[in-house]
Structure to design on (335 residues):
């Protein structure tokens, strides 16, 4: 999709990369891996990937799940778990400051990706087996989540020691919903998964008291939002409004005093399928709804997919940043 946007911008005599750099308000803090070069960060967990090609490019699909078939906590313990020792924290401060010298605090936020324990376990075993184990072998799931959470707690600690004063947001992620409902019951979430989310969010506040805890989850998760709030989540990210029960007005009414919202601009229906004027109208409605009284970061609900009309992306940007600022962006991006 990046190449499509570059070409579309060039047709208007604009530099897409310059526009993107100006509107990208959140920068990711990522310590470098000190070992052998990684094709993808999931390799540290023993996960293998294969490349699948399609008309517009390619994506990686998991083809090795190292915990598939693990039936006991001892099986989980025998896995070779990664260590924070494999990452470079000494050079992290210079890396972070060099990306955006002089202007970071003016308009950007630095975010530390701080843990997705259930998601990683699912990648390591497969979704079907994860859901079965949640019901039949919860001790196995707990054992895996313990190892994964401990890794992230150590990463958070060492990162905060290096650049704690630069961290604005700790970002956590575990997909908990499908298009129509939760992937499992609230009881299962509370008994097996929530304790690890609570631990991660609590540690983030201990390390950087002024930081915020952002949590990514796709799908229909309205019913579990009280539990995420109890776990310490302050910002809900993705906000997949076409999923069941995720209507913007309902979310803002019921949780707007407890949560900020990040996302909501649909990459499933709105951006790929609507006309540009419809994109503008929907983005305006989302800003008016979620942004009432504050508490909204307007953004796509997920990565913009190949096949999305590039003019819809420009219509989204123009609406979100405002016509005058968008005109200034375009003037500054003239080729």
């Amino acid at each position: 999709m990046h190449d499509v946007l570059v070409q579309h911008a060039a047709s208007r005599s604009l530099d897409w990369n310059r526009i993107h750099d100006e509107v990208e308000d959140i920068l990711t803090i990522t310590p470098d891996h000190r070992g052998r070069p990684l094709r993808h960060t999931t390799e540290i967990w023993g996960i293998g990937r294969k490349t699948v090609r399609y008309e517009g490019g390619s994506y990686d699909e998991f083809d090795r799940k190292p915990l598939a078939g693990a039936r006991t906590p001892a099986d989980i313990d025998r896995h070779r778990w990664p260590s924070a020792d494999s990452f470079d924290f000494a050079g992290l401060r210079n890396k972070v400051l060099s990306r955006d010298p002089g202007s970071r605090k003016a308009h950007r936020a630095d975010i530390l990706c701080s843990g997705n324990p259930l998601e990683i376990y699912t990648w390591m075993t497969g979704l079907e087996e994860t859901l079965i184990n949640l019901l039949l072998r919860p001790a196995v799931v707990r054992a895996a989540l313990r190892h994964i959470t401990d890794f992230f707690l150590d990463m958070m600690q060492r990162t905060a020691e290096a650049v704690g004063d630069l961290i604005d947001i700790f970002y956590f992620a575990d997909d908990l919903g499908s298009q129509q409902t939760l992937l499992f019951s609230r009881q299962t979430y509370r008994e097996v998964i929530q304790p690890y989310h609570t631990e991660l969010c609590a540690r983030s506040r201990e390390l950087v008291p002024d930081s915020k805890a952002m949590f990514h989850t796709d799908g229909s998760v309205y019913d579990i939002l009280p539990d995420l709030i109890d776990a310490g989540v302050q910002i809900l990210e993705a906000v997949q409004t076409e999923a069941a029960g995720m209507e913007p007005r309902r979310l803002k009414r019921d949780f707007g005093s407890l949560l900020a919202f990040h996302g909501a601009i649909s990459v499933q229906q709105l951006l790929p399928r609507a006309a540009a004027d419809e994109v503008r109208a929907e983005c305006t409605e989302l800003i008016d709804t979620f942004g009432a009284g504050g508490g909204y970061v307007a953004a796509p609900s997920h990565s913009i997919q190949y096949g999305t009309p590039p003019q819809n992306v420009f219509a989204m940007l123009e609406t979100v940043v405002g016509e005058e600022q968008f005109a200034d962006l375009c003037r500054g991006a003239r080729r």
Summary: The first helix runs from residue 2 to 11. Residues 173 and 205 are 17 Å apart (CA to CA).
